[in-house]
Each structure stands twice: as C-alpha cells, then as structure tokens.
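re: the backbone from monday

yeah here it is again, tokenized this time
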C-alpha cells in the first residue's frame, strides 16, 4: 500500500473522529440545556455531518484495508449535503452565534467537514462519470428538509418572527404575516 493511500485513509478516519467529537459535544449540550435530542437530530447540519462521518469513516477504513471504496452515489450525496450546510451557514447564519456556541464544534461541522468533503470529491472524483439523472435523487432530502423546517417552524411557534432554528427563522421571515 502506497504511503499516500495510508495518509489519505488516516486523514479520513481522523476527520470522521473529529466530526464525531463535535457532534457528540453538541448533542451533550442539547440534552443538558433543554433543547433535547429531538431538536438536535432535526438540524440539517447534524444530519449532513452524520452522513459525512459515515462516508469518511468507511472510506478511510476501506483505503487502509485495500477494500471496496464507498459508493460514489453515497459520497456525492454527502458532499452535496455538507456543501449546502457550509454555504447556508457562512452566507446566512455565521453572525447568529452566541455565548452558548461551542466554537471548535461549530467550526468543525460548518467549515472543516464541508470543505474536506468537497476537497475529497474534487481530488478523488468518481471512478465513472455520473449522469445528471444519478445525482437528481440527492436533491430529494434537502427539499423535503426545507419543507419540514418551514412547516415545523410555523407550527411550533405560530408566528413568522420566531422559529426553532436560525435557518427556519430566516426562511419563515419571508412568509406574509397572519399565515
């Protein structure tokens, strides 16, 4: 096994462990501050990072063992979801952090993981070119999540000005009052 393969495999495992620690830390915080497991598990950031952890862990172990790599369709979905996570955070939500934010965990799930997953996709492209039709199913989850977030934000608060996540707060602010 080439040294570069060992380094890449080890880096993927290390990224998976870093993101796992960040997710575990934020889950612990959510459970102990009253936000709860259910809300934590409802964040797109956490869901996309859990998939990223799975892809990096399985991919890193596969490289180190010389076994079959993670399927490109799964890698593509994880890449898209993490890029969405990073893009939404850094364009709309970066100024919403407060004293409750655990900075290293926040930076890991919104910055390091999206950048690492995108770099992995670009530096190790799919073995065979994927057709657009193969990537279209990846859009189902973000679109369903958007609808879920908008509806949940509206039903949990009953107003357009408060909501259960910063992203849904930003999105529901576009709704006309009285809805």
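seq for it, each position gets an aa:
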């Amino acid at each position: 096994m080439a040294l570069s393969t060992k380094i890449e495999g080890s880096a993927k495992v290390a990224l998976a462990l870093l993101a796992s620690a960040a997710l575990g830390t934020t889950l612990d915080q959510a459970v102990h501050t009253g936000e709860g497991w259910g809300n934590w598990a409802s964040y797109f950031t956490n869901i996309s990072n859990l998939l990223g952890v799975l892809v990096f862990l399985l991919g890193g172990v596969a490289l180190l063992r010389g076994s079959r790599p993670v399927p490109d369709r799964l890698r593509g979905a994880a890449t898209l979801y993490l890029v969405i996570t990073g893009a939404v955070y850094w364009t709309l939500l970066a100024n919403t952090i407060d004293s409750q934010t655990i900075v290293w965990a926040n930076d890991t799930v919104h910055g390091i993981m999206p950048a690492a997953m995108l770099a992995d996709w670009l530096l190790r492209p799919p073995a065979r070119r994927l057709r657009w039709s193969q990537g279209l199913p990846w859009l189902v989850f973000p679109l369903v999540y958007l609808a879920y977030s908008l509806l949940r934000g509206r039903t949990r608060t009953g107003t357009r000005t408060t909501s259960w996540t910063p992203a849904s707060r930003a999105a529901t602010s576009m709704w006309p009052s009285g809805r």
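Helices lie at 3-32, 36-41, 44-65, 72-93, 103-123, 132-135, 140-157, 166-172. The chain has a mean pLDDT of 88.
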